[in-house]
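Re: Re: ligand-bound prediction request (bumping)

Still looking for help on this. To restate: I need the protein modeled with zinc ion bound, output as structure tokens. Inputs repeated here so nobody has to scroll up.
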Amino acid sequence: MRKIKLIKSEKKLCLICLEEHEVQTVMLTDTEEYKGGEVSFKAIYEYCSLADEYLETEDMIRENSQAMKDAYRKAN
Ligand SMILES: [Zn+2]
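Reply:
Sorry for the wait, this slipped through. Here it is.
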């Protein structure tokens, strides 16, 4: 099972279900394929408990992509 760490929880308009409710910001370990290998890194997502779905905002996409590249550099 994935280890998920809660960073914060905030009542706001949820971009996943488009309702206002507590949206959690979580950190989890993601594994993605990058340059022919698998890279594990810590990624940040928003989580909607109503839809049980994760979403990356534009900032998160940038940060997560940077975290993946850093992890790749460290492992190689
Ligand atoms: Zn939602």
